[in-house]
What does this fold into?
Amino acid sequence: MKRSVTVGIAGAGGDGVVVLGSLLQKIAATQGYYGQMPRYYGAQIRGGGSAVKLILDGERPSLPGDTLDLMVCFDWEKYLEVDHELPLAPDTIVLFENEPAQEVILPEKSFKVDFSSRSREVTGSTRGKNIMALGLLTRVLSIPGDAVREAIALDEEFALLRDNLSAFEAGEELASEFSFPELGLAPARSASAKTVLTGNSAMARAAIRVGCRAFFSYPITPASELMQEMERELGGGNGVFLQAEDEIAAAGLALGASLAGAKAMTATSGPGLDLMTEMMGLASAAEIPMLIVDVQRCGPSTGIPSKSEQSDLDHAIYGGHGDASRVVLAPCDVEGCYRSIIEGMGIAQRFQAPVIVLSDQWLGQTLVAVDGGFQEDECETAERLRAEGPELEGYRRYRLRDDFISPISDVGDAGLAYRTTGLSHNESGAPASDFETHQRLHVKRRKKLAPLSERDDLVSVWGSDESSRGIITWGSSAQFVLEAVKCLGLEGVVKVCVPELICPLPRKVERFVSSVEKLLVVEMNYSGQLHRYLRSELDLPKGTEVWARVGGRPFSRSELAGPIGGIAK
Amino acid sequence: MKRSVTVGIAGAGGDGVVVLGSLLQKIAATQGYYGQMPRYYGAQIRGGGSAVKLILDGERPSLPGDTLDLMVCFDWEKYLEVDHELPLAPDTIVLFENEPAQEVILPEKSFKVDFSSRSREVTGSTRGKNIMALGLLTRVLSIPGDAVREAIALDEEFALLRDNLSAFEAGEELASEFSFPELGLAPARSASAKTVLTGNSAMARAAIRVGCRAFFSYPITPASELMQEMERELGGGNGVFLQAEDEIAAAGLALGASLAGAKAMTATSGPGLDLMTEMMGLASAAEIPMLIVDVQRCGPSTGIPSKSEQSDLDHAIYGGHGDASRVVLAPCDVEGCYRSIIEGMGIAQRFQAPVIVLSDQWLGQTLVAVDGGFQEDECETAERLRAEGPELEGYRRYRLRDDFISPISDVGDAGLAYRTTGLSHNESGAPASDFETHQRLHVKRRKKLAPLSERDDLVSVWGSDESSRGIITWGSSAQFVLEAVKCLGLEGVVKVCVPELICPLPRKVERFVSSVEKLLVVEMNYSGQLHRYLRSELDLPKGTEVWARVGGRPFSRSELAGPIGGIAK
Amino acid sequence: MTGGTSYVSDVEPIWCRGCGNFGVLNALARRALPNLGIPRDQVFAVSGIGCSSRMPGYVDTYGLNSIHGRAVVIAQGAKLSRPELTVVAIGGDGDFFSIGAGHFPHAVRRNIDITCIMLNNFVYALTKGQTSPTTPHLEKREEMTGLEFYLPPVDPMLDMVAYSLSTKASFVAQGIATDVSHLDSLIEEGIKHEGFSFISVLTPCVTFHHSELFAEMKEKAVYLREGELVDVPDTAETEPWPHDPGNIGLALNLAQIPVLEKPYLGVFFRGKQGPSLNGKVGG
Amino acid sequence: MTGGTSYVSDVEPIWCRGCGNFGVLNALARRALPNLGIPRDQVFAVSGIGCSSRMPGYVDTYGLNSIHGRAVVIAQGAKLSRPELTVVAIGGDGDFFSIGAGHFPHAVRRNIDITCIMLNNFVYALTKGQTSPTTPHLEKREEMTGLEFYLPPVDPMLDMVAYSLSTKASFVAQGIATDVSHLDSLIEEGIKHEGFSFISVLTPCVTFHHSELFAEMKEKAVYLREGELVDVPDTAETEPWPHDPGNIGLALNLAQIPVLEKPYLGVFFRGKQGPSLNGKVGG
Ligand SMILES: Cc1ncc(C[n+]2csc(CCOP(=O)(O)OP(=O)(O)O)c2C)c(N)n1
Ligand SMILES: Cc1ncc(C[n+]2csc(CCOP(=O)(O)OP(=O)(O)O)c2C)c(N)n1
Ligand code: SF4
Ligand code: SF4
Ligand SMILES: [Mg+2]
Ligand SMILES: [Mg+2]
It folds into this structure.
């Protein structure tokens, strides 16, 4: 029996590919399997190709294999739009509905299964074919039928399945025709059910958890699901949600809400982040807490909206005229997505600054099954520093204190009215145009963030302290790097550093850098943005290597074997 | 007699301070004197303080002295708003109208002159007082009266003076009462008349020269004069000028005009540049020529609109989501302002990319008198690469060639219609969402700029090749650095490198860096933006020093003496 | 003369089968442009971002699928710099009336001779079904915020006519994607109109909208005919009047009737012509 | 009750002597806010950038001099998150109707209970005298471009009334900086109005505009009084009608008369009240 299996599913828009994949993942999750299921889709709204690649793993969260163990194909033409993402290996087992196009070379163990007509026989419609395939897959993977039925009964998420049980059962019966003992999944090491969610949804949950009750946004791929989940959460009087007229307004609405005390937030992708630039500068200058999520996609300009890239780091760190201090966080997995919102919201409030959280299409839209415990972890309360005692008299909004953080009052707080501005201003918030004040407030806004550099907990390091070979990577690329290091058996040789806090740069990254002789930076953008940033801040080892290329295709283990093997030598 | 004299003039808004300074500078320029006259003004539209600091120099273009040789004060209260910019020395000669406020310690040679009442006596109004002061100053500085009268007669610029000649003459007569032989200016080394203009105006002239006939902009301090000069130039059918509804539109109008073949341009300051970010990304992605001038002021956010800073470099280089290649130029003087527009427009056309020219308030608004020859220099024709021969058949807009630059057709050109997009696209301009095409077009857009790295002519180096001590500085700060090095007598010891082309970084800068043992970077922004950029691109000498602080006050020789003296040791 | 040929490019549209955008493509590229005999390389079609904004990719002229909301400014820039061009700005309801809304009052008052075609499908289609500024006031909107305030849609026709009051020079019309030949005639007139023109096209998104919405609209639709009495809804306070697109006051009355009550098809307002940017005639 | 006191802060305005903005400051901070008895810390005044936008610095409440054109969105955010606040958005004609124009159709249809005060001085004052979207169509405009096309000003009152047609819920009024007590009454009513309100203030820029412009406007100005016949200009096509700010059709007629011909002072339109964001009542 196998520890893990990678299943690919491809078809046309109406084939129910994503539903099939999600249901399989969710059922497996009830049995304790970890899972990760990226989605691949094109620019077409309907009728385009749709594919998923799902790994089920009984031991640890892991990435889908480079090639597939098992493949279900409803439509070979659509498959060819995504064949790069779902490559077949000679030993892939393929279940397909129609004869393949010429370009497809079928592996040895390929079988034609007539899902559609069987579905029609059983349910009167071909639309049940994905559910039928689901039944078949559970059997092939040895997920016990009883368990499935129990899960179905318990959870509303399976309503669709419940309503189509006949198709499911017909699928189970097919199993006798296609038995592949080599694909049976060993029982999960821990049978406790896993939580199934995407990064976008983890962020929405975290936002609610940390007390965000004011969310403003403008639709954009691949951030819209985050917006829509917040819309559902905050509807019906639970808070304030507004779909803005554009991203300038989204950011402005959030800034206004924040001034009035709300833990306010907005989410977007690259083009929207561009439009928020000026408002971000105001938040920075006037020290207004603000949380911005950027679910990155391929750029520049409209780029490839449905595909992942990590090319907004430059803008997150440096974007905007003037020296506008800000904080940049970048989670590398779903749990990190959750944590980064909790942390980001807290930092925004405590440090009174704009915080940008960089997610990406992979993180945002990939459905994963993970231990959900992080959702119960103790949680940052994200409070703002309040004036007290003598400060209440003659309150000055930007009073300089040793830690450079001034007590803030919310619009509406009694007795503490203040006026502020994006103009250079003095400690009272009144416009000032003298050099000294201008410099002093710059120092304040930068130095107040200094304690963040000590946040060692926001930098993860894997591997042995003694290693003299190191990799720094960030965001979703980290998953691929860690997986590749593991596959190459180099865990003892190469250590990996993943900063979740990128700006200001934590000192732990500096210590990591100075502890290695050879360094590799891996990221998914053309120009090596993290590398350039690190180089601008630290002395990197001579001959530091960079593996940076555009997005549009996930890293694979084999792609990364080269550069990682290189520094391991 | 003196080689140069620094004159300060201060007063209230209505006192005619700037008119007085400009007339004096222009008269002196007719006699061959170089001059430089920064303006200092506050946020008040009227009734606020107004001051200028004018150096007249018979030998070379130079900066006003740190302290004044001569001061004319119409209003001490207003003077106190700008006293930092116009510091008095013990030997400053002061001519003042009213008794000073207590805070002012008058130097020994201070004289009360009743400009207003004398003006009323002569002209019937106090408004002639600045012209009267002008008459007095020409005498004090030994500018021959005949020459003045000749100049007045010849040039329309002096119409105001001609109309108020009686006040002028009354001023001249005053001279007998206040004779300061020590202030007499030696005749200019070359009597050929100097050209008097600001950086903003130099840019407008260059734009016209290089064939810009489409200008779109939105008013903003300190870039508005550039807009207004283009409005005058392009009016009456000479071209297209439009004041846009905002900066997004200004950039969009320019982009549209450029697609249709115009050498199009826009100008703004920091907040406007923020708003142009997304359009810049489109220009980069779709390879549309576009010239953007940013006349920098103090940031972040609204900052100090009337004062100079160099803090938009980060945004110019890195602003915008995705890896959007662009070119960044930064002139350091008025001649450079002219050249950077000629070059920038040429580069935009030839390399089909957005070009950002970073000016600043000092460059843009300071009136200088210089040798005007540069306006007749041979000039870049700024042509676009056109398809020819076999390329005309089956024209592909983004055809990959060895130099990565594809022939471009303008909208309206017969037979070469193409479609393009900000989406990732193939060589024909059609949307493409595969990784390979995406990577290939990134390579194209970056590599096509490579020849710019060889533009040694866009990097100036002063001092001796053999020096092992170097300074890199940029923009208007370069003037102060060069002046300070000269004053400190360190020209033989310290060499200075000023890149006018910043991105892509010319190799000459790299050679400069590797030729020195000690390096100092000087710039006027809080975080040392050029330094960080250089560090991200080059290996800088260990212990490289940075002198970076916010704007709002020009550098002085004495301020820079410390850091420059430091590396000279 | 290129009349008779088709200006549809060889790129396969990726729109859903049954999408109204096909009708607009046909009206523009198979009819209006060839009928007018404008050489393809004298046409510039520029769009924003959206399903609708894919259009320029499918029209064999110069074309740009630009960024969200900015087609109208890019169009003006191109036209100003090369006045002999025929410039068409294409966008969706979100593109034009949400993120791009601020550009219209200014485009109208400048009266630059471009033709805007808005594909109003009453939804954000490309981003998969969110509320657009023209999405009818459905029950859904109640959930949209904890604070249940009144959130009716924007009315592009009304706004365009109101903006036109200052110049009295625009051309403002509405067509429907299912009547290609009528739409063609509006587009042709819009292009020929010397000055700013705006054509709203009612077009179904078959994927993200109740199919009834469009069916109902199509059923209710009435064609405006000059001189004939306007068919006003029962709820209207005014008596029917003879349609006169030359009269902006009447156009304003017409535009006040919500599209969901009475989708009028035809020319709402036809302002005075000119200035011709070609001839540089003052207005 | 704080009534009777002044809410003017101790920061000295840097406006030119004689600037109309002083009148607005007085109406708002010496009269309306204290008269209404709203505690200073329950008021949020937010502006954009411009001479006019300096205002919040001079009013002793919570205040933000934000960025150009965005006061209206920031105001909505604050109000939504803390509905008990009195939120006033202040801006210039450029701020509100040039760079910020795209936010208004949406602010109006959301009908969030904020009060916008636009200081219309018909010029970009802070940036020293450029044409604003309301700058009257002077000879100057001919020089503005090589292409001499027709470039009339935007009409904020007309646009605001037109936007209000969909909700019939806004409050739209116009005052003049020289009549502080009338302006005060408009501002008070605007603040009390439960829903979106917009008050345009005709205010002279004594530095960058022909002094005649304002003098003439002041002279021509007529006060609107409910029930009394509206004084329409001779050029108007309509007969005078009794002023009824409750009737949006009439408001639209009124708004169509250009401000330069007849600057009306008073309430153009007073829509239905609500929803009250405080009480979370649906509209
Ligand atoms: C600045 C920016 N914000 C958001 C988006 C995402 N986006 C793409 S199309 C679109 C709206 C689509 O609606 P509409 O304009 O009505 O066009 P349709 O797809 O309905 O034809 C949005 C919000 C974007 N591309 N750029
Ligand atoms: C994004 C941006 N663009 C331009 C400016 C420059 N600017 C400041 S105020 C202003 C317009 C002023 O006109 P108005 O809004 O009518 O206010 P007024 O000064 O007349 O009261 C402009 C263009 C800016 N601050 N920010
Ligand atoms: S989603 Fe709607 S608008 Fe987009 S192509 Fe499909 S039917 Fe047309
Ligand atoms: S410039 Fe005009 S608007 Fe500005 S303060 Fe002076 S008078 Fe007032
Ligand atoms: Mg739409
Ligand atoms: Mg104004």
